[in-house]
Request: fold
Amino acid sequence: MDPRRHLKEHLKDWKSWGVDAVPTRAEPTRGAPETAPRDAARPPTADGGLEVLRSEVAACTACVLHRTRTNTVFCSGRPSALMFVGEAPGADEDAQGEAFVGAAGKLLTKLLKEVGLSRDQVYIANVLKCRPPDNRPPEPEEAAACSGYLKRQIALVNPKVLCALGKHAAASLLGHEGAMKAVRGTWRLLDGRWATATYHPSYLLRSPGDTATVLADLRGAIEKLTSLGGTL
Reply:
């Protein structure tokens, strides 16, 4: 039988049964959550999208660092209007799979507390998601391999204010290749978000005399957020 005629006969039968519309896609299995079609103009929700991205990062083999990592290090904290971006995981972060949990992370927690914030009020990530051997600085090709992950992470977290911690984060986020003293505390618009930079907490472990400078920069980030109508 001609397939079109066969279909026409089926449609007649369905109509006689009271069916006046044909579904355009399969119904979800009973008890299973329905997945809506992805709208390219609208990003997925932060929590769901971030978990998908975290899984992609965990399976990444785009650069040589996957050969020596113990864990990928995706983030610390929760999606927030204020996001910090560091350089790369260290030994403690690699062991625990969480950002900023070593000595520099403990100092960052203390600094945040001094300006009235707790770790769970902000979101913290790194340029690199894997630890470089011996905590060496990120290589350009490693930062390039992770750049897409970081851009998607920022888009999903959707902060109003970004703060780069250290010169390598400032280079990746702001394109600044010079000394930190020339860029710290300054502001620029980055893809619709205000971004700044300050010294990395690990720098303060070696040069504690600049602690007041970093505290001033952190207060400046909070003031900028407040001026934009953001809350934590």
